[in-house]
Design goal:
heterodimer; A: alpha/beta; eight-stranded mixed sheet; 10 helices; about 45% helix; elongated; B: alpha/beta; seven-stranded mixed sheet; binds guanosine-5'-triphosphate; binds magnesium ion
Chain lengths: ~280, ~290
Amino acid sequence: LLGKKEIDEEVLEGLEEALLGADIGPETTEQILEVVTSRVERQELRDVNALREVIKEEIVRILHKEVPIPTVVDRKPLVLMFVGVNGVGKTTTIGKIAAQYRRDGHRVLMGAGDTFRAAAIEQLTEWSCRAECDIIAKSQGVDPSSVMYEAVEKAVREEYDVVICDTAGRLHTKKNLMEELRKMVRVIRKIIPDAPHEVLLVLDATTGQNAIFQAREFREAADLTGIVMTKLDGTAKGGVIIGIVNEFDIPVRYIGVGEGIEDLRPYDAKQFTDSLFS
Amino acid sequence: NLSQKLTTTLRKVRGQGRLTETNIDESLKEVKMALLEADVNFRVAKAFLRSVKSRAIGEEVQGSLTPGQQFIKIVNDELTNMMGASNESLARSENGPTVVMVVGLQGAGKTSSVGKLANYHAQKGFSPYLVPADVYRPAAIDQLRILADSLHLPCHPSTKDQNPVEIALAALESAKINNLDLVLIDTAGRLHIDSQLMDELHQMRQLVNPQEILFVADAMTGQDAVNMAKSFNDELDLTGILLTKMDGDARGGAALSIRAVTQKPIKFIAVGEKLENLEAFHPERIASRILG
Ligand SMILES: Nc1nc2c(ncn2[C@@H]2O[C@H](COP(=O)(O)OP(=O)(O)OP(=O)(O)O)[C@@H](O)[C@H]2O)c(=O)[nH]1
Ligand SMILES: Nc1nc2c(ncn2[C@@H]2O[C@H](COP(=O)(O)OP(=O)(O)OP(=O)(O)O)[C@@H](O)[C@H]2O)c(=O)[nH]1
Ligand SMILES: [Mg+2]
Ligand SMILES: [Mg+2]
């Protein structure tokens, strides 16, 4: 903010641009700035740094959620399902999460539930090799619900700790594909009534305001329990998450910070907020 | 939607004879909001609004149109102009195969677009050669091979242990020998800030001398579109843009951002997951989609 000390029109405009540039979106930006400018007008804030800190506090307040992640101890097998639009990083994230559970000594089974896209099953199979875990993989064109069924059923029978289901990328605007997702959830529920224990929406940090529509539709179809935001190793800030968490009250579980098996971090609202402004 | 909002906002201008700085101020704010909601980069939006303002001020309120209609016509025309002309033809090679490099960020839709480009051009009489040059992503080579097989088109036999630049060179030689006139190179997704991987593309370009370098971008990309596109363009001097996932409800403001920062033509849009889902780009359609 150009080394200014006092708060004036130019400073507020600079802050607005910083927020917009981080994909926070015009509406959420306006809400955040309203909270802040009223404090400025009441003379509670006198310099730029204080202003920036208040904005950060407001953002962290929205993002920080104390919702515990269901653990392997509580449910066995723990059933995780990954959903989201095309190309966001679902399959890669599953590889990373499987490896993490493996490092913690758990028995992991993957379900290659994307039976639609070319080489999707081969791609997840490669990740199961890297993560050193088992996988239920059938062939392209098979009903994805049957893969889910088989994976969860095997996990119960052979006492796996975690079963992680991949699904095909799908645009939230495609009613038949969203219906297919509902069916997968119903099928899993037949075997374990309170499963899937985690339905994770994967969002790409480079996505703009459309992420809000994605969250809305996927939540309606599959009752989301968490969000993973990928590709935060790029220059996109992923600020759209603020509006999403504010509106839908869904916690962010992990962030993806690269293409390697170790490139997964637990979500930290304060770190995320600091990097919005870096 | 925007035109309804503007009709309301500008209703009072009807009796005033002319669009002035004062009476269009509210309307400019509405357009700014629409552009930002559509993910147009905030700097690009600012520049766009300045040009709309300078075009609009002083315009006589014409008899047949309401001020709202007139203003929105200016906005629409200005946006359509900025998007560039419809132009889906590939630059052709003077002798030997036409070479196209397909580049972009992770997950944008490059591999599927190479399949779609092959299909599109095969139907136009080309003999395409699909070249998998992504040796990093698990099963990337399989993915392109499966697409090529479904189209009954030849696919270069790349393997993961090869170097992408060498793959491209070998494929070009193979195409020449086999009289294939369109070489479509699928590259690995990469971040514009990964200097090593950007350098790999730079090397590939130097050695393979492509007629086209197409930047594949996801229609739902947000503000970062300007950074990615500018870096790729500065590094490679792109020849065209391909926008994917236009079958969704993303407004596609990234198209304007990318166009504004690169000045390169948007050549194609992908509108679905099937191989036939590739269309020529129409500026007026995307302009009205962005405005919402
Ligand atoms: N830089 C970076 N790339 C990532 C990250 N996560 C995934 N990717 C890359 O994004 C691309 C798409 O990842 P996938 O795992 O295939 O995405 P997907 O959601 O399963 O895609 P579909 O199944 O086709 O919908 C791949 O090139 C991944 O390596 C991340 O955190 N950072
Ligand atoms: N609905 C829809 N999906 C698309 C479109 N284009 C690509 N996809 C899907 O987007 C996902 C990613 O496509 P890919 O072709 O694998 O993307 P990529 O750029 O090659 O990915 P990386 O090689 O990992 O960087 C796949 O699920 C595709 O089927 C499109 O126009 N519409
Ligand atoms: Mg996948
Ligand atoms: Mg690819």
